[in-house]
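Reopening closed ticket. The problem is back. First fold of the pair:
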Amino acid sequence: MTSSYNTSSLQATLLLLICLVSGATWISLPRFIRWRTRAAMLNAIPTIGPSGFLSGYIGMYSFFTNPREILQEGYNKYPNSVYKIALIDRWAIIANGCMMIEDIKKASDTQLDMREATAESLQIEYTLSKDLHVDPYHVAVVRTQITRNIASRFSEVRDEIVAAFADHIPVQEDWVKIPAYTTSFQIVGRTVNRFFVGLPLCRDPDWLDLNTHFAVNVFLSATIINIFPGFLKPIAGRLLTRMPASMKRAAKHLAPMIEERLVMEDQHQSKDWPGKPNDLISWLLDEATEDKQRTVSELVTRVLAIEVAAIHTTAFCNALYELAAHPDIVGHLREEVQAAVKESGWTKESISKMRKLDSFLKETLRLSGSGGFVNTRKVMEDFTFSDGTTVPAGMIIAVSAYMAHHDERLYENPYTFDALRFYKMRSGEGESIKHQTAAPALDYIPFGIGRNACPGRFLAVYEIKGLIAHILMVYDVKFEEEGVKPPFEWYGQNMNPSRTGVVLFRKRQEP
């Protein structure tokens, strides 16, 4: 009896184990197949640099220290296709050529998602707020209200430009050395905050210090967090983020303003009430329809997020460097600015008439306005390019903007700064409204392209043109060593203007 019982028990146990193993095999088999298929897709995409399990880390280090050379190698080898490079914890798929860019432009968000890619690259959950990714209603404010109000608020922006320059670069007869990078951030911060939150907050030292440093810290923290593998990112994020402290500090300035607006809405039972300010807080409240979107903490988060995008622009610093490096263009630009202002005053309309200045800014952005990656997308489902290359879901796709903007097949003498390059193009028959700075194209992608192009680009262009126009009318600028522009600083895929460069200013001397 005992022997029979033991045999039956053993048989039952073995049968159960077989069933469990078989079940586990059938459960894991689809996952294994998907993994093998994904690996095959990735293996079919050529690699720049080592691609082995351990040697891939060498490739990652090489990209971080020599990004321009690696991106150029990939662009030269695969001019109308894709390749991959090793990042810290993943592969990045780089698409080259107008055909590939067109494929990305046409793809739906269910195929290639910009929001997901941005959330990962900026580590939004830790550096800003997860709610920004889950419910990005503030993007509609940037796309509509901010753009629509450029004309009506431009006189205030102009007033702040004059005041900011007077404070940071007083007009003097003798040449004065100005640290270009830090000063450009300070002036941009004041100018954009006059548009966003108005007086007196736009000149509050604590508010400006918070926004300027917060913007820098978001990008720096994201860069550091991305160094860690996925399972360590939550720990790194909690240790590195300054969001809680920044929120508390920002709320001291914004909470009274927000609470007052909410009280006025309740009193008038309407979002429209007498004396309502026409600023970013009001635009956010107009867009927010749910109670959870209309809390102080939510609105403070949205304001900070928009500030990050608006202030952390290196375009003005780059334009300042190019202006100092090319004194031959100053006379042409001054003549145009004077004529436009004489006809239309300091208005959005007059800025629109400054076609040579627009060409100068667009050429600046072509040469220096983009680093290694733009048009970044996360692959949400296996995506096949028109050349037949398939990229598996979960990957990040990007375009190498710097290489595209220096392609001699797209631009004549691409490494030469031609301030009037695009002005000449617009002078052709039927071309007058084309080739503008804010207009993305397959061969010009500093703002991305298609429906996901940067929604704040119009404000940025008018603001920077207004800043440069003011310099032209008030100052002379130059480098200590004539024509020698400080070199760009590359960190991985990020390219920035020199943070130590100096530009000399003095009161404009009439010829």
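Second fold of the pair, where the issue appears:
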Amino acid sequence: MTYEEVLKAARECIGDKCFACPVCNGKACGNKLPGPGAKGIGDAAVRNYEAWKKVYLNMDTIYENKPIDTSITLFGKQFDYPFFAGPVGAIQLHYSDKYNDITYNDVLVSACSEHGIAAFTGDGVNPQVMEGATKAIKAAGGLGIPTIKPWNKETIEEKMQLVSKSDAFAVAMDIDAAGLPFLKNLTPPAGSKTVEELKEIINFTETPFIVKGIMSVKGALKAKEAGADAIVVSNHGGRVLDGCAATADVLEEIVAAVGDSMKIFVDGGIRTGGDIFKALALGADGIIIARPFVSAVFGGGAEGVAGYINKIGEELRDTMAMCGATSISEITRDMVRR
């Protein structure tokens, strides 16, 4: 299936809140929440997308002609590409009944692991969501990253036990999910965490721990103090705070502050292989893409996911060839400009 065919099929079954747009830029879904949009007016999601377009590529084809290698090694695992599928939860609430969290993760995790990348999985109030996600990761040989919401201590401990059984090569917490309105006043409770609380959570597991939802040097230093192995520069896809900066605009300063001591992922509005190249040039170790993978699953199942991976993988390979980098390690800051 071509990606255009995937999107066309997705529009027929993805629900009435997402439009499986040819360009997923946050404008059509706006403040559709529940849905893929944001609380408020959704300006941060749009800003995420537009900020990457303000980073330009420096073309240079005077270099030794060698095969292009897009592979990376992360936490002891080798991947064909430096991008990952992002965590999405409450599938039926935000999209449609074609999939639920369990069936969605079954498709996404297996398809990603079979095609050279890994998927972050989402979390939910229903314990079966994490149970299903970790079973899917276990079946994929541990090639997945379960993402836990910032619940209370007891709930996190229970979910960490599931993570341990899954053999997942890393675990994440999307701490910025504290701002999701549908998590308020729920049981179990979820919310912000102090450095000490986060440190205690990280100590629950020996698995590399990723803190997702960092948007400032101050926040990055707090995650470092808590003992995080990696962070995700993320504003939850622009869904939780209007007026928030774009991830592309804060990435470099965060890399400068903590890039020598932890791995740094980035998400938010990254939609093409060219965008992935830009993020790597600005210092990211890995890139996360979420919403387009939802369209890929709804529009084509495993085949749709494979098609999308191949699409942006080829775009990355072509960008590297046109900018003079034959491996990910050769991508440098001088290959892009603002």
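Update: turned out to be a display glitch only; the data is intact. The mean pLDDT is 95. The longest helix spans residues 291-323. Please close again.
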